Amino acid sequence: MPNLETRYLGLSLRSPLIASSSPLTGSLARIREMEAAGIGAVVLPSLFEEQILREEMAEHAQQDYGGTLEGFSKLEEFRFSARAYLDHIRALKSSVGIPVIASLNGASSGWWTRYAKMLEEAGADALELNIYSVPTDPDKAGAEIEMELLDIVRLVRAQIRIPLAVKLSAFYTNIAHLAKRLQAAGIQGAVFFNRFYQPDIDVERLTLRSGLLPGSSRDVRVPLTWIGILYGRVGIDLAATGGIMEAADAIKVILAGAQAAMLCSVLLEHGVASVGRLLEQIAQWMRRHGYESIEQWRGLLSQKNCADPESFERAQYVAAVGGGSA
Ligand SMILES: Cc1cc2nc3c(=O)[nH]c(=O)nc-3n(C[C@H](O)[C@H](O)[C@H](O)COP(=O)(O)O)c2cc1C
Question: For the domain 6-320, what is the CATH code?
Fold first, then answer.
């Protein structure tokens, strides 16, 4: 069996497959099954800024007024209370051996970031920050949005010692520049990319439709592109999320330079048994190509290392759409 060990955020992982943030990693039983199947690490479902805010307001309302929690009736719809989240981390740390990465999801630079410290104290091995906001203000410049992101990252970095990763949106103007600034702000890794919620339209009822679309292998091209461009150019670990459904998808992002390939839709659709299947197929591929360790082939097809670096750039696009010989 080839050696599938890797390192991500300074942590030793048995394999490069990580279960990304989703309700699945809110279950101790599922995490145990994934650990038995060889998963490298898990990212817990996010603890949301809104959730923390509602809880704190609810507590405040109870203490001050002893009244009913009007306006906070949806509190129970959230997946975890902050307290239950910390308990989940403690329970995991006493019963599984794989690294546990907590996740905080917010949009504003504020007091909620102090929860990072609590997650660290509960035993999280690392923290993934998902700074999720959809900019709709036409008067807000891209530079301002990036500054807000960096402010949150700096605030969190100042409070914790554990490794910090940021799950990035694919919609920044210059992701390479932003990655460098995030590195300077003290992150150890970045996850490419956060999937934005996108509404759909029902053309018969003339209404907006909600609901998440399951991932597909086609999605992997976006993280593959940016990881391929950034590999060897920034001093942070690169992880891919989005559309890793097959072993080949995971192999591709590692060939582009990823330290880790994150699984979500494949686990939700086909169950945690996918972990063992994908790992076996990755091992078979390595045997077929004569590789004994992941390090031998990571980044082999990154822009920096591949024979045709233009494949990542405009020249190839021009050739692909038939606009000239590239
Ligand atoms: C039901 C569901 C819940 C999710 N919850 C979170 C979350 O709490 N925090 C987060 O950062 N990502 C969350 N994600 C995003 C996934 O971690 C992952 O990045 C995304 O689904 C793309 O990967 P995939 O194509 O393999 O599904 C969620 C995805 C799904 C489908």
Answer: 3.20.20.70
